[in-house]
Design a protein that fits this description.
Elements: H1 3-6, E1 9-13, H2 19-24, H3 26-33, H4 35-41, E2 49-52, H5 67-77, E3 81-85, H6 89-92, H7 96-109, E4 112-114, E5 119-120, H8 125-158, E6 170-172, E7 178-180, H9 184-200, H10 203-212, E8 217-219, E9 231-233, H11 237-244, E10 253-255, E11 258-266, E12 269-276, E13 284-286, H12 296-308, E14 332-334, E15 342-346, E16 352-357, H13 359-364, E17 370-373, H14 374-389, H15 393-435, H16 441-471, H17 478-489, H18 491-496, H19 502-512, E18 513-519, E19 526-533, E20 538-544, H20 556-568, H21 573-582, H22 595-605, H23 629-636, H24 640-649, E21 653-655, E22 664-666, H25 669-689
Helix pairs in contact: 7-8, 9-10, 9-15, 10-11, 15-16, 15-17, 20-21, 21-22, 23-24
Length: about 700
């Protein structure tokens, strides 16, 4: 120990690992504070000895931020420290990273390290070796202590005797057994959560239902001013998921649902990461260990449904029915490779859904496996579904009536329990106010304010209940029942109603249909569908698809023969198009036939228009005495274009059977002479001008 060391400050580092140790192991704390006397005995004045005790109650394993240790490192790095004293190496650090950082800085700035017995110079090899071993033993000691404790904890948990924190729906009785929470409102609210998830199949939908009806959820916080007390909080997705994923509500005793692995450094502190353990890897899982709200089979089904609600096409998850226009979202399967088909939207406004199999492109960089336009396929599947449900419409309507009445009864039960709790809280506040001495106005005023607040809450709940009763009658009238049953029997009307959302249609579809396999490359111009019903049955269907050219048309030869037949019957292109549309033909791009489409097809196939004189050239005069355009031009001595001009301005009268057929012009001898005279006069005037 040199004068250079004594010319700097001495730091006493005091730490204990937990608040419980600080509270109950005070002798250790006093022993660490007494190290100030050791620094004074080593030659430091009392006023130059500083105690760092900001880390009392904090672990030294590196998992929490220790401000006191950071302060000590900073003082060493600034060159202000000559001596660091701690009771032993475990007080300074329980992890080698912090310990060796301290040793490196002390060696760099020549700081002496002391414990309760001797001094160490980090610059000396043997002292540095001894200090390094002490740090390693300190970390190993912590590991051994933790391992022994965890082994005993696991052994106790394997017997189901380790007392675990219980959720709000469960409680311990006087003998220590786990029972359902005696509070009826808590039981009813949790039972409602499981019942609505059984109906809606989505935790988010359950959360929206609870918020819509102003139904909070019971929670039991582990921290806070009132730990382990049941409190009511507004429903959100995290709370609903914690209820659905907690095996305790299924009557199971589980140990090892979470484990710590990995982590990262943040603010120079290593923070481990807590991850969920798969159900098959739980260390202890004792089924039917205590009463529960649901059975184990339903709990496992809920977990499968929650995992399936995550929209991951690559993992084969269908996802929750969403508000998009694609009816088969999540249940469309590629008929070529068997993978789940994803969804994209095309079109100018991005509102035209397309089922696409992009696994080959994403994984191998190849072309798309296939793409199927969604709307025609959805329309066909929709018609098949409604046809399949037609015999059961009456039963569906009766079941819907029963479900509406059951839901109303459930809500009435929830409101009754809420009103009862509010009245109890108000009565309890009144009894507390009555129990206080009248002279003690300091307490009486506070209790009076609390009583008034409880009365206002009870009154607000009563008003909300009356408002709900006015909108939701408890018993449906006979007229309402008949109207609902009539509406329920009209399933197509409900399906196509504007009030029915896309998510609701998809939910109905998934109750009946499990998957739909699509393949548009199996047959030319068709989309092949295979419907896998929830009953296990399958059905195959074919749908004409939209193609870009008639080379891929589904039934090109039948279309061609029909066009030839209609054309031979003397029908014009528009008439042929109307006949094709009436017979169920669809144009290549999925639209109805028009006259232009028929003209293009006839031109491509070389089918001439059949006129009133067959396929031969037009004669000068028709059998009924009328003139053709060529005959009129010869009779007047003009060009055919002049004849068309005369027809347009009304100098000649003619008719066509239909547009495209030859003209039949009525022309008498007097009219021929008149037009010839007019032509001669016009020609003379032109010669004179020239």
């Amino acid at each position: 120990m040199t004068a250079a060391h004594r010319g700097k400050l001495a730091y006493i580092y005091v730490r204990q690992s937990s608040v419980n140790q600080v509270r109950h192991h005070q002798e250790s704390t006093e022993l660490q504070y007494r190290l100030v006397d050791r620094a004074v005995a080593l030659g430091w004045p009392h006023e130059r000895v500083h105690v760092i005790d900001e880390d009392l109650g904090k672990s030294g394993a590196g998992t929490v931020e220790r401000l006191g240790f950071k302060k000590l490192i900073a003082e060493i790095g600034l060159g202000n420290t000559g001596l660091v004293i701690s009771l032993d190496a475990s007080r300074l650090a329980r992890n080698n990273r912090d310990w060796h950082q301290l040793l490196d800085l002390c060696a760099l700035f020549g700081v002496i390290i002391a414990d309760g017995e001797r001094l160490y110079d980090p610059c000396a090899y043997h002292d540095r070796l001894l200090l390094g071993s002490s740090g390693i033993m300190s970390e190993a000691e912590l590991h051994q202590i933790r391992q022994r404790l965890h082994q005993g904890e696991r052994q106790k948990a394997a017997r189901g005797e380790r007392r675990l924190p219980l959720p709000a729906g469960l409680a311990h009785n006087r003998s220590g057994e786990i029972i359902l929470n005696p509070d009826e409102e808590v039981q009813a609210r949790l039972s409602l959560v499981f019942a609505k998830f059984r109906e809606l199949h989505s935790a988010r939908a359950v959360m929206r239902y609870l918020r819509k009806n102003d139904l909070p959820l019971p929670v039991r916080p582990l921290l806070g001013p009132a730990p382990h007390d049941v409190m009511w909080r507004e429903a959100d997705s995290a709370r609903v998921l914690s209820i659905l994923q907690n095996p305790a509500y299924a009557g199971a005793y589980v140990y090892g649902r979470y484990r710590t692995e990995g982590g990262r450094l943040r603010h120079d502190v290593y923070r481990p990461k807590t991850v969920k353990v798969p159900i098959v890897d739980w260390e202890v899982c004792l089924q039917a260990a205590h009463p529960g709200y649901i059975g184990w089979e339903e709990f496992m089904e809920n977990q499968r449904r929650l995992a399936n609600n995550i929209n991951r096409y690559a993992a084969g998850h269908t996802g929750v029915p969403r508000k998009g226009a694609a009816l088969l979202q999540g249940i469309a399967v590629c008929g070529r490779c068997g993978r789940r088909m994803s969804l994209r939207y095309s079109g100018p406004a991005g509102d035209y859904p397309v089922y696409t199999c992009r696994a080959d492109r994403d994984q191998e960089g190849g072309p798309l496996c296939q793409e199927v336009r969604a709307l025609p396929v959805d329309t066909h599947v929709e018609s098949v579904l409604l046809e399949a449900l037609r015999p059961d419409q009456i039963a569906i309507a009766i079941a819907a009536l029963g479900q509406i009445e059951e839901e109303t009864r459930q809500l009435e039960r929830q409101w009754a329990l809420r009103r009862e709790r509010a009245r109890y809280e108000a009565e309890r506040a009144r009894r507390q106010y009555d129990a206080v001495e009248p002279e003690n106005r300091l307490v009486a005023r506070s209790l009076e304010r609390g009583w008034e607040e409880k009365l206002r809450v009870a009154e607000a709940i009563e008003q909300d209940y009356e408002r709900w009763r006015s909108n939701e009658p408890l018993v449906l009238s006979e007229s309402d029942r008949q109207a609902l049953q009539k509406l329920g029997e009209d399933l197509p009307g409900i399906w196509h109603a504007p009030s029915t959302t896309s998510a609701e249609r998809k939910g109905i579809l998934r109750l009946i249909i499990g998957e739909v396999v699509l393949d548009q490359k199996r047959f030319q111009g068709q989309v092949w569908l295979k419907i896998l019903w929830q009953t296990g049955a399958t059905s195959e269907h074919a749908l004409q698809r939209r193609v870009h050219t008639y080379c891929d048309y589904v039934d090109l030869e039948r279309l061609r023969s029909r066009v030839v037949e209609l054309n031979a019957a003397g029908k014009m292109d528009k008439e042929i198009a109307a006949a094709l549309n009436a017979e169920g033909f669809v144009a290549a791009r999925g639209c109805a036939f028009k006259g232009e489409n028929v003209w293009l097809l006839r031109t491509r196939w070389g089918i001439p228009t059949v006129k009133i004189n067959g396929t031969s050239a037009n004669p000068d005069r028709w059998p009924d005495g009328t003139y053709s355009v060529q005959g009129t031009a010869a009779a007047l001595g003009v060009t055919p274009q002049t004849v068309f001009d005369y027809l347009a301005c009304g100098l000649l009268n003619g008719r066509q059977l239909t547009k495209g057929q030859p003209w039949q012009i009525e022309l008498s001898d007097d009219q021929i002479n008149t037009l010839r005279t007019r032509l001669a006069r016009t020609r003379r005037s032109r010669r004179k001008v020239s």
